[in-house]
Amino acid sequence: MVRILLYLAFAYLLWRLLTALFKPTAAPRRKPVIEPAASPYEVLGVARTASTEEIRAAYQRLVRQYHPDKVAGMGPEIIAVAEARTKEINAAYDALTR
Fold first, then answer.
1. Contact at 8 Å (CB) between 40 and 95?
2. What is the pLDDT along the chain (98 residues), one digit of tens a residue?
3. Can you tell me the distance from the alpha carbon of 33 to that of 80, in angstroms, rounded to the nearest whole number?
4. Dihedral sign from CA coordinates of 66, 67, 69, 72
5. CATH topology of domain 2-97
6. Shortest CA distance to 66 belongs to which of 41, 45, 96, 50?
7. Predicted TM-score of the model (pTM)
8. How many CB atoms lie within 10 A of CB 93?
9. CB-neighbour burial class of residue 89 (10 A; exposed 0-12, middle 13-18, buried 19+)
């Protein structure tokens, strides 16, 4: 009985060693691809005739939706997409409120 337990322990340790040595390498991370919209109005989803209040409301709604802190518990790819989208939203809002 003891001999069987020793063989099992040895087999387990050998298996752990081999799996540690021959781990598959992770695929390289790719940057998320976000195509820029044609205009700041399209980014914010408002009409060209939108008032300042409508633009501000759309901006606040989108920032609440895409802010990186909102997806902090998710994977790094999702966080990167949220950061890129938030930058795009901020740039569109800055362009429309200047």
1. yes
2. 888 888 888 888 888 877 877 776 666 677 666 666 568 999 999 999 999 999 999 999 999 998 888 888 888 888 888 998 999 999 999 999 88
3. 10
4. positive
5. Helix Hairpins (1.10.287)
6. 45
7. 0.61
8. 20
9. buried
Structural tokens at position 87:
């930058």
> What is the per-residue pLDDT for 37?
56
Query: Biggest alpha carbon distance in the chain?
Result: 84
Region of 93 (left: φ > 0; alpha: ψ -120 to 50; beta: rest) is alpha
The long-range contacts involving 79-82, CB below 8 angstroms and separated by at least 24 positions, are 80/31, 80/32, 81/32, 81/34
